């Protein structure tokens, strides 16, 4: 596993992507809906990170 | 963000979903979405935003700036089997290129050998 900033991170091209389950804005009213990596099995996923809302992406 | 949302259909046509992640809460995401673009908001988006409030996912993907509690601009393409096929990380100041993301996605989906600067429609090496 590659080491970064003293932490071992799991993300590596050619290997299974790190699992996640996060709250999302899928249901903008209730904000209770989550997304997990497993939800995207059978589809391609473009997962992107950005520093903060109210900034450019 | 709006650059990806405006071209969401091109991702959908390639059977790809898009998910944006920051360390903000879903409540802040909602406020951002409910703010029009001309007021520094992002406006309605064609894909969801996720809240990595524990920073765990950002850390796992190697994009967390621990001292600031925020994520650098990492972008990952994960295939239908859950395998990471592409990873690019920009530091905080530089945005990404949607054209390049789509190009790489199409290249990956050919399942063949795509040489440097390959463009969709061009011949594969094998």
Q: How would you briefly describe this protein structure?
A:
With 57 residues, chain A is an all-beta fold. Chain A has one domain (1-57).
Describe what you observe in this structure.
The complex is a heterodimer of chains A (about 55) and B (about 130). Chain A has about 55 residues and is mainly beta. Chain A has one domain. Helix content of chain A is about 0%, strand content about 30%. Chain A contains no helices and five strands. In chain A, the strands form two sheets. A two-stranded antiparallel sheet of chain A has the order 1-2. The two termini of chain A are about 30 Å apart. The mean pLDDT of chain A is about 85. Chain B has about 130 residues and is an alpha+beta fold. Chain B has helices at about 1-5, 10-15, 25-35, 55-60, 100-110; strands at about 15-20, 50, 65, 70, 75-80, 85-90. In chain B, strands 1-2 form a two-stranded parallel sheet. In chain B, strands 3-4 form a two-stranded antiparallel ribbon. A two-stranded antiparallel sheet of chain B has the order 5-6. The radius of gyration of chain B is 16 Å and the shape is globular.
What's the structural blueprint in terms of helices and strands?
The complex is a heterodimer of chains A (57) and B (126).
Chain A: E1 3-4, E2 7-8, E3 21-24, E4 34-36, E5 44-49
Antiparallel strand pairs in A: 1-2, 3-4
Chain B: H1 2-6, H2 8-13, E1 16-22, H3 26-33, E2 49-51, H4 56-60, E3 64-65, E4 70-71, E5 73-78, E6 84-90, H5 98-110
Parallel strand pairs in B: 1-2
Antiparallel strand pairs in B: 3-4, 5-6
């Amino acid at each position: 596993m590659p080491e970064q900033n003293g932490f071992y991170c799991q993300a590596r091209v050619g290997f299974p992507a790190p699992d996640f389950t996060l709250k999302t804005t899928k249901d903008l009213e209730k904000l209770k809906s989550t997304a997990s990596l497993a939800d995207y099995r059978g589809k391609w996923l473009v997962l992107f990170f950005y520093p903060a809302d109210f900034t450019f992406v | 963000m709006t650059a990806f949302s405006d071209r969401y259909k091109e991702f959908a046509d390639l059977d790809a979903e898009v998910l944006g992640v920051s360390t903000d809460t879903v409540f802040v995401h909602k406020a951002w979405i409910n703010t029009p673009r001309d007021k520094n908001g992002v406006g309605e988006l064609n894909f969801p935003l996720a809240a990595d409030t524990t920073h765990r996912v950002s850390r796992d993907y190697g994009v967390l700036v621990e001292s600031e509690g925020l994520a650098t601009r990492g972008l990952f393409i994960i295939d239908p089997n859950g395998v990471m096929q592409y990873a690019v990380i920009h530091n905080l100041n530089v945005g990404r290129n949607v054209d390049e993301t789509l190009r790489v996605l199409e290249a990956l989906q050919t399942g063949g050998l795509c040489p440097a600067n390959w463009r969709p429609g061009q011949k594969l090496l094998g």
